[in-house]
Amino acid sequence: MLKSHQIHWNNKTLNYDLGRYDFTKWALKVVQEIHPSVNCFETIHKKFTPDEILKIQYYVQSAFLRKDWMELIDSFAKEYAEPIIDNLPYLIQRQATMRVVIPNQAKENRKLIFHQGIFVGNGRGCRTFWNPLTEARDTNTMWILDLEDSRRITRQTILEKWSMKKFEEESLKHAWPVNLSPGQSHLFFQEHIHGNVNNNEGYTRASIDVRILLKGEEYGRRSPGGFFRIPGDYYTSQPIDLSDKKFISFVSWASEYGKNLSYPMQRSTISRYCDMYKIKLSYEDGEFDNNDWHMMLEWYLQTCDADGIVLPSIHSLPDEYHRRNELLNLALQQKIELHFADEFLVMRNDHDMEKINTYLTFAVRKKDPYVWEE
Description:
Elements: E1 12-15, H1 23-31, H2 44-47, H3 50-63, H4 67-80, E2 90-93, E3 97-101, E4 126-132, E5 143-144, H5 147-160, H6 164-174, E6 176-177, E7 184-189, E8 194-195, E9 205-214, E10 228-229, E11 247-251, H7 263-276, E12 281-286, H8 295-303, E13 308-311, H9 321-333, E14 337-340, E15 345-347, H10 350-361
Parallel strand pairs: 11-12, 11-13, 13-14
Antiparallel strand pairs: 1-7, 2-9, 2-10, 3-9, 4-7, 4-9, 5-6, 5-8, 14-15
Helix pairs in contact: 5-6
């Protein structure tokens, strides 16, 4: 049985005000920063090779961290999401996904295979707005299954260990094309199987995926604070130069989040953040294994004379609420900034501390059995 806040996302079409939310115009303006001659997406395959198109996609996706985009999509969510989620608080995807489907994309190994959101880490508390930037028709649009078929096929796939070939074939038997125009969104949630067939329409289709996460629901591997942000949290868009301050970095395997993340993965996240904000590190260290109370982090907060400490994530902090707050309060007392690389978040005051705790308590990773566990 569907929950009340799932009904509006059960393969529904939303018509929105294209004049106020012209996502195509916004995306084209970004593309024109690097390729001024591009004036539409439909013929982009005639001007660029597949690898060049992929670089364009990545450039636009990076632009989703800009404040003007965040403000635009926050306004869109407030107007069109809030009325259909039972007034539940929500987070919004920090960096939307752009997809470009060129003609005969299968030949270039660009066809999006059928899948459902849980397969790629999306929790069941996520809701998706799928927004075409061009006409999306027949073979170049997204194909999707009804919820009942999606759940049945998902259960059989897991329990019977199907091949990808069989999964695609069975999905295609029940899939249908989502034919939409700019100014329309397709709304679905993560249990719906969806994917692409080969584009035989002769023109390129472009689209943007945006997700929200509902309070108290499941986030899967899409962590609050990192993948999702609070509406109005635009910290990543601020061009801040921190090269005049003294920093150390600190990795951790002592939380549930960090215990399975390798040192190179944690360092890579920190390095990206430091490069963005011109942070110069004077030293790097990390928490001892199995010390879930984080005695090393406490020691650094008590003794180091750095201006700040860069951690991979807010989820690198102690999992236990009271111990976590002890360390956060200690950082405030010592006037040491804590920077969290995955979330692009910095703690300098009580308001920042409250934001961290909002993210860490907003949702749960999993709370109910999956359909193949029932």
